[in-house]
Amino acid sequence: MAQKSEGSYGWRLPAAKLEKAVAKAFNNWATSAPDKLLRNPSANSYSKVSAALGQLEPPSSSTWKHCFGLLDRIEVRAGQLELKIDAQALSKNIGIDASELLNEALVHTEAFVMKRRGVETVLLLGAAAPQRDTTLINAIAKAHVWMKAWRDGSSLSDIAKSIGWTPSPLRQRLKLAFLSPAITKAILDGRQPADLSLERILRSDLPLDWDRQAEKFGFEVP
After folding, report:
1. Which SUPFAM superfamilies has this protein been placed in (predicted)?
2. How far apart are CA 14 and CA 187, in angstroms?
């Protein structure tokens, strides 16, 4: 039933997390479906559909499996999850003839991002709202303060001593001051790629060329 689009570029989704994401997407569809599902809605049919779909919202893993039985197709593309509801299966479950269901209302699409949290990869459904990484933002701000102090004549040893560090980790953090203005602004706005973290930048060899930085960390190159 699940299909993978040609545009998915070879990435893989953890099966258990994908199952939960599909169940959540189905729940989102079921919540909004009564307003758009019926071809000729009446007060009685609307109430009937609302009550039936309310029972399908997945409060437990056993109900999730039941929801999957109502799906004709699950299609995963890069950053997008699409569900196609089976009209006949849904018709039997909600007691409404399939001919009364609008086909366009049986397709539900949601954006998602994959984000690494520690050692775990999570799927975040919904339009990706800006997520400001305060840890990364604070580290960049400090790097610029230290870089200014160094350019003003302070030695790395003196700067490191003032913050209780040795010069080695200070040098590593100073690379953040060499991020391009475009990347820095994107991070400040919360528009960085979902998998970009302070740890990833510090582990990387940072190119001085700004376009190469963008390519390395997954930003669009102007």
Report:
1. KorB DNA-binding domain-like
2. 27
Burial (Cβ within 10 Å: 0-12, 13-18, ≥19) of residue 68: middle
Q: Residues 76, 13: contact at Cβ < 8 Å?
A: yes
Distance CA 176, CA 160 (A): 16
| 7-60 tens-digit pLDDT | 333 345 567 777 878 888 888 898 888 888 999 888 888 888 888 887 765 545
Tokens standing for residue 205: 């060899």
- Alpha-carbon distance of 44 to 35, in angstroms, equals 13
The residue among 23, 7, 2 whose CA lies nearest residue 125 is: 23
Length of the chain: 222
Phi, psi of 125 (to 5 degrees): -85, 160
Cβ(122)–Cβ(115) under 8 Å? yes
